[in-house]
Structures
1.
Amino acid sequence: MSRLHALLSAALWLPAAAALAQVDGPMGYLFTHGPAADPATRLNWGLMIISALVTVIIGALVLYASLRRRPPLPPADNGWTPPQPDTGGASWIYIGTAISAVVLLGSTIWTILTLSAIAAPHREPSLTLEVTAHQWWWEVRYRGSRKPDVMTTANEIHIPVGEPVHFRLESDDVIHSFWVPKLGGKTDVIPGQTNFAWLQADRPGIYRGQCAEFCGPQHAHMALYVVAQERPAFDAWLEGQKAAAGAPQSPQAVSGHDVFMSRCSVCHTVRGDSAGAGAAGRLGPDLTHLMSRSTIAAGRLPNNTGSLHGWVANAQAIKPGTRMPRMDLSPEDLHAVVSYLETLK
Amino acid sequence: MRIASIVLRLLAGLAWMPAAVHAQQGSSPGELPRASQLIAVPVGGTHIPLQKPVQQVANPYEKDPSAIAQGRALFHAMNCVGCHAPEGGGGIGPPLSDHEWIYGGQPAQIFMTIMQGRPNGMPSFANALPEDSIWKLAAYVRTLSRSPGEAVNAPPASTQSGKP
């Protein structure tokens, strides 16, 4: 008996525990870590609990009513069932309507207060980032106070902890949606329109984001990461990202640089390249500090030697439809290009 | 900004380009079209209606088989095949072997498309190739839509707007 009981409770609780573990997974929006998301999360939980309570209470009342219904009156002489005498039950309709009205009105007010709480940060954002959504990756620009002071990166956004960060969202092609569930709600990214969002991370960490509006065959592989760091670490990162790429040293990397300039530079930028002119293509992600990023191809692959070889050789096999064509490089050129890419720290 | 820089580059290139070409080739390809002619070339073809007629700008390599062969080599070397497929069959990029031209199929329109790049994935090759090579590439691209029997030297099949 006790074994059966244990089995039954395991069968009930294990899926629930697994579901709860997922709830706090990388894309779990039921536990959030920033003031742009927390009020909505509280509202979300509150409305969920209210809905569950309403379902339970109404279910119990319906069950009670159907079990405790009165026996039918005996048929009258003409064979018809006489009407039930009025016992004052109709007043429960007014009571129920009043309770529902109070709960719904309360929910409405709470929703309005929540919307106003997350509409704008409580203080001036310390940083404004420009995010351009492309099929299927995210371009991110950090602009300094001086005009030419601009740093472009891709798919990995670093922000300082505890400070509101403002996002200017633009699309290069179709409608996308910018969503970092642990830090805030979705904001659509619409071609020809600039939308704004703000996020703030209350604790350091890596928060996963994802395009949340179907944008084509590789929509699922359009991830981004928000890395929240303490201010000094963030400043150091930003300085490092602004720096120019170093010159390749090893003979293989030098020959890889030549291949890169002739085959890749039409679409990709490597800032302040040692070769003078430098690669200045604007269609693909800026690769100046490629190796500082943890993934390539918008979260499609971890950033390592194997992934880079596969991606450079034939991106179409890994992310069909991506704008990066098959390269048809000789094995020597492929190894050389990857060893050059690996110098872009 | 970008177009301005391309125009500047074109203007700067005018002074030395033909001379350099003569020096490299040893043969005379004729004058390359001038920047003032090229910036007037409107974008438009089968899908985007032309706002004004295309002024005829001749490609000096249009009827030069050896230049077309060099254009073919560039088509592979610059990985045009990565998007447009060998023989221009199309893939990520639109086919070049049919008679539909999104941004125009006149020699100067093809030149400007390669030079400037176009939306949705066509990069600018202004930094990657000299003008001379782009004209050869454009001459080769024009041959892709010809039917097999058609001679390289034959004039364009159609003079309808938007079609070569």
Note: The helical segments of chain B are 2-25, 35-38, 65-77, 81-84, 107-116, 131-144.
2.
Amino acid sequence: MTTNGWVPQLPSVIRTKGLTKRYGRRLVVDALDLDIVEGDRFGFLGPNGSGKSTTLRMLLGLVFPTAGSAELLGAPLPRGCKSVLPQVGSLIEGPAYYRHMSGRANLRLFDAAGPGGPRRTRRERVETALHRVRMGRVDERPVRAYSLGMKQRLGLAGALLREPRLLVLDEPTNGLDPQGVHEVRELLAELNREGTTVVLSSHLLSEVEALCSSVAIINVGRMVVSGSVDELRSQTGDVHVRTPDPDMAVRLLGEKVLRRDADQLTIASDDPAGLNASLVSAGVRVTELVAQRRSLEEVFLDLTEAGEIPL
Amino acid sequence: MIAVELRKLVTRPRTWISIGLLVGLPVIVAVLVEATGVAPRPGEGPAFLSQVLSNGTLYAAAALAIVLPLFLPIAVLVVAGDAIAGEAQAGTLRYLLTRPVGRTRLLVAKLVTVVVFVLLAVIMVAGAGYITGALLFGTQPLPSLSGGQPLNSGQASFRIAFSMLYVGVSMLGVASFGLFLSTVTDAPLGATLGGLAVLVTSGVLDQLGAAGSIRPYLPTHYWLSFVDLFRDPILWRDVERGLALQAVYVVVLLGASWAAFVTRDVTS
């Protein structure tokens, strides 16, 4: 199931088998099998109400599964939570704070609440985390007065306090401006290069596409598809060609030309290299030739369209 | 974790505002009584108030009696109802639990915080009552409510301290209701008002002759029994029953809170 299947020696950080959650008669998560390996950048995609959050909550020990099993960093859930959660940073359904305190005070309190991390180095940990999200010079205003973007960054800083092995993030760029989105993406990529496994749930496909190496798409609590982003974005068999000699190309290729728009052609071909060779050898000059891939968005819509979206 | 929770309690403006209000009411009453010289006749109005004009020492107990029926339980219920539900509403509960802070540990820390608030409130009210009484009405040896010999100062301090403890235990019973409701809802206001509904129901039934057989089991029934501590000799019967009744409520409700909290899905 996993994307990095070609490096099977990597241990799983998250593994679930038949993970199921029912609220009364409503089935929210239905027999979900996940396997996320260490070092992965994993995107968890699905429309609103598809069970993403409930799954993440089960993985963090907040919600108890109705059936099935889950392992987090090798410990069985929910019993093993206590031993592994210190190595996990999370941001679930938006950040949350004591609104009358400053961001710094919030982080200090948050740091003091859990195990690990001596009191001496608390100030340093807090400053490092703030620095990482570019809030190193933030003043002592209460969080109440923060912008949405600052709150989101502070939430990320909270998740980074213990230099976690695994980051579980729900919509981490929510409320950020494009500059902020870019910074967060860079930060996550950097953390991932340093060895942190990043699990990100989002309905923003571009987000997942830009950051993640593998993805699972769920809908109505069921896994629809999972795999590497490259695999999912398979070629569509269409090739875009730009040429100063469109007429010649149309004459050469005949019915293979699906669409023509001035100097731009869409051509049905499973072999872009061969197509290029035949065009050029026939004297058709080629300005641009791109094998079209489906965007993750198209994959997503194709796969989730059929399933009904619960209200 | 307990230190963290206590820090939250003392850094929160609300804590001090509610204590300020609690202390303010008896002070206002004292000033009015002093200025007008019109004390309630014996047997009317809050306990002890009829005697304070002649003796300020008793005003510590009178202050407790003034805030006991409504003001103090509301303040306690606000803090207790906020304990878990407040964290749930703010969304901080999920971050505390994934920190991770064990659920039992968090509940114990919240309980300690509530107990500290109750003690703080009782001590502040009684302390402010004593100071106000001493300043406005002067101090004399405490008379016993049953007449007879005045109490010596050692006896008087003991009785005032014990009545503070008694009021504190009664408020712990109230707090247990708040804490329990706080673990089953995500709305702190709901938990507070739910607790208040329990007290109002109890108060109404306590006045009702037809509810006679259940009256001794109502949480508010023995609240004012600390008045008996100022009789000579002390009338222990109702005080003992009051303490035992509150202990039962506290144990049962805290057990229920724990069971509810550790098995609950946190979806807030």
Note: Chain B touches chain A at residues 1, 3-4, 7-8, 11-13, 90-92, 94-102, 263, 265-267 (CB under 8 Å).
3.
Amino acid sequence: MQEAKLETEFDPTILAFCCNWCSYAGADLAGTSRFEYPTNVKVIRVMCSGRLDPTFVLSAFRWGADGVLITGCHPGDCHYVQGNYMMERRFGFLKEALGHLGIEPERLRLEWVSAGEGEKFAALVRDATQKIKLLGPNPLKKV
Amino acid sequence: MEEEEPRIGVFICHCGVNIGGVVNVPEVVKYARTLPNVTYAEDNIYTCSEAGLTSIKNAVKEHKLNRVIVASCTPRTHEPLFRSACREAGLNHYLFEMANIREQCSWVHAHQHERATEKAKGLVRMSTARAAWLEPQDEPELEIKDTALVIGGGISGMTSALSIANQGFKVYLVEKEPELGGNLRRLHKLYPTMQDTSEILDPAIKAVNANDKIETLTSTTVSDVTGYVGNFKVTLAKGTEKRDVDVGTIIVACGAVNYTPPKGLHQYGVFPHVVTQLEMDELLRNGKIEKPPERVVMIQCVGARKGEIRAVDLAGFPKSDTARLLSKILKAKKEEGWPYCSKICCMNAIKNAILVKDKFPETDVIILYGDVRVYKEYEDFYSRARECQVKFIKHIEEVTPEITQESEGKLTVTAYDALSGQEISLPCDWVVLSTPMIPHKEEVILARMLKIPISSDGFLMEAHVKLRPVDTQMDGIFLAGVASGPKDVPESIVSAKAAAARAGTLMANKKMRTEALTSVVDEEECFGCGLCEEICTYGAHYLENGKSHTIAALCRGCGACAAECPRRAIAMQHFTDDQVLAQIKAGLTEEL
Amino acid sequence: MTEKAVLVVGGGISGIQASLDLASRGYKVYIVEKSPSIGGRMAQLDKTFPTMDCSMCILAPKMIDCSHHHNVKLLTYSELKSVKGAPGNFAVTILRKPRYVDETKCTGCGNCADHCPVEVPNEFDENLGMRKAIYMPFPQAVPRAMTIDKANCIDCGLCQKMCQAGAVDLKQEPQETELNVGAIVVSVGFDLFDSSQIPTYGYGRHKNVVTALELERLLCASGPTGGHLIRPSDGKIPRKIAFIQCVGSRDRRFGTTYCSSICCKYSVKDAVLIKEHEPNTMVSIFYIDLRAFGKGFQEFVNRAKSEYGVRFVRSSPGEIMENPATRNLSIWYEDTVAGRIENQEFDLVVLCPALVPRSDAKELAKVLGAEVDEYGFFKAANILTSPVDTTVPGIFVCGYALGPKTGDIPDSIMQGSATAARVAETLERV
């Protein structure tokens, strides 16, 4: 695999928030199954996607994230019953807020990944990295 | 916030070659030493070994560390071990943090060594940034009630209930049907002893009924579960009647069902003499087959091992057949089914084959298979079948056997013999389909109620498929029997006893410590809007004198209140805003 | 009646699980282990199927729990000598063999071994690597202490001179300890069928014919080659590897007519591991029936075929011949599906032998008064309803000591926990 980065090729920095019970375990499963994916994503563990204060997402973009992935349990499966629903509500508002700030809303993604979906997590990382690459760097970085 | 400066120790694990073979660990150690607040850094071959743990403890003492970071595997397996090492070194274990550089780095970037190393550095940087904000915590103690709930009254549920009762605890045994017994009620004989199922079922039911510690509730289902380990509140429903019980542990023994082929698959539901193994078992038991059949053909793996294409070496077959074979294979690719092997169907088919032969010695019995998956000493059972003249034909599974009917009871099975490559035509009276064990549809509802995940094969998921096969991710909830996957009777019984042991250990200890991940309200900032009280699923917030308060025993630590609070007046212990924001910033920039 | 105490004979994963379950609920557990360290077979494995977890990584924390737990006493390098009594009240005699090292003083630094002049084959590495006469069987050993193999020691006393902790005690004598326990758990595991009993496979004569356990040691990072898969004869990397299933299993010649339940699974695992190490290796598995049942296993086999290109040949090979110049092996076999007799050359052949009872299992059974089955494994009181009870009340059995009923590691662990339940039930009533 070619390791050297081309000068012209944009290498995005992406943060992923994973909930302890489902998506973090799913990400671990991707590891034990040895599914390969790009190195652009770093994971931050929280207990529940419902923990994610909108400030976290906005700060991430302010500090230069090219993309933010939010992952949590499938609807109905949240370990804390409703946390993921609350996150979903915030997500709508966040997308709009990003738009107002001049950041493409597609840079923020919300996906449900269960503890048994290692392959899905790997596919998500590959897809997100690819799409954010096409979007180019975070527009705030030019400011 | 602690007054003293953070003194962080970083321990980077090679994990043999699991990490070290991809990530340049010494380089990461060097990097760690440059990070703010890092007093000490070293690498270990296996940090989880006795040597690694001793090294951590010694470093804490020698360098007066007040924060420890281990960069290694996922915290989901080894965090308790490292936390206990910290405690032994005199450090509150909430001052410990892990960076996952194996499952989420070296194992998924196996061919990108340089980039994996850079990512590992970033993950370590994020952990050190968070660690600087960590604070010591006290863990609340939970009482564990000495009563268990067993969901499911089949052989596994009854075994668990009996074991728990014999260990001295009270048990509620809940069964949705009017009778105890589960799937075994529908089975006639058990392999390899060929004894009647009633020989093991009846004594178990008798023992359950005779045991005064077991309260059996038939025609009853679980309609709601709230609470947490040691303190589950369960609502049971019998018809329209509801009843609440308090239990300390729960064992899920809800069983599984036999897959019924869709109508038309191998002409099931179309030709009357095409049946499943379960149906054949019933026919034999009820004497419904009066005239000795000339031939019975059994087909294995119907609806199992599907979904993946198996490579077929066509080189040895007559060229004239190749084109026809290929088109049949392509048709088979679309066949529905479950991808896994159901483990017990080979033995089950052999058992039924022997039963047929015992009853009708002149009948020709043929089993069409892909692999004969008998195992353990059951190999001898397989030999016995062959000695009874049961024939085993390995067929090309990719080509679905075709079944045609001349008249009722006069069928022909056409398949391809894998060893000769020839098409074979088998006239027979009965076709018996071996189908896998599949999860109940209702299992999803139960899983949601208990908040336990489901594996990709549809069965309930264990905490760790190798090391914790009867635990679930919820403390206090365990799995018994086929609820977690296909098993035969002795394996179900072993798993049921294992679950009973794990539940019994919890209840025997009467108390356990739980995570200190609760919410804390800053009363100065709080202006009493009541949003937290409204959204908390557990009722852990209440308002008094215009301010919100947390009931720590009820708080499960999800953090939704902290995220929703309009004044940012709620802090989540061990997942504070400062801690998470520090991690985010460190993940994006080198400036901290 | 004394406090509730339990004796666990055999410190492998199933014994460890039983011990931790019992210790966690307040019983005092004595683990008697014949070798210098607990860990058993799982410690020798590189990775476990189908999750490909590093075996030692998931085992080590449990081993350490045992050593730290205040209710667990490890009696390693020890053997059970006699048993008398009944459930609730067994009097057992344990022989503590002298390791000539004081466990309480030894720090495991290894200085002694560095200076020891005697090198002998290392049993833990299946005799593929060497160790000294004073040794630690593997780096993560528990207890973390050295042991002197007196049979090979030349009494030079260098180790004692070099030891800075003063832990070497050449005057140690065997000690007999009497214990009173309420129940006994047997978890002594298995041995491998001696593949040299099948002369046509050349094990023991052809250097590049190895057993699967030897392969595990070659693949393991802490093994004799540091995890580099190289051939025993010349250290070259093998490019063509064959696995042969059912060596001694399902075989009437040797009485081991049973299926050992795990060999198909571990060979697919090893094949995938090898392909991950060296993707250009050609790996062929010669099997009779591919017994890939169990959680996630069929899916794992599918990946082995489609993603990793592992080749499966339905055949029980006839003869393995060695080319004396290259030490390559040529296998004569009948491909039953293709219907042809073939000959193919390989650089390395891995035999998957039957798993048989430990050589001293019969002796132990006699000491306990327990029955063994026709294969020599401990007999369950009732294979359907009392699968972990031996024929002696109060004595239970788990793991491969029970025989191939144990499918794999999760089964061993479940059986370990199940014996804990049985012990608790027994001692509650006494």
Note: Strands of chain A lie at 14-19, 41-46, 67-72, 108-112.
